[in-house]
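step: validate -> pass
step: tokenize input -> pass
step: predict -> running
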Amino acid sequence: MKHLSIHIYGKVQGVFFRASAKEKADELNITGLTWNNEDGSVTIEAEGEEENLKQFTAWCWKGPRLARVHRCDIKESAVRNFTNFSIQR
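step: predict -> pass
step: emit ->
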């Protein structure tokens, strides 16, 4: 089990990025949470098995169809033992 903090920049708000991230996370058995930031970026805290996280971060570089991802900053940090994946408002 690993924990990644993912900060995504580009056209990532108003394009269903968080909802699509939840769908992908649920598909890959990843837990955590996601939220919009005031600067127009999106943050995701994600936990899961290493291979699933690799697939998830690859998806984050693309995002949903209308998104235009310019940069992803990804850092590993301490596991927080999330029980599901949620969208923060």
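step: describe -> The chain is about 25% helix and 40% strand.
step: cleanup -> pass
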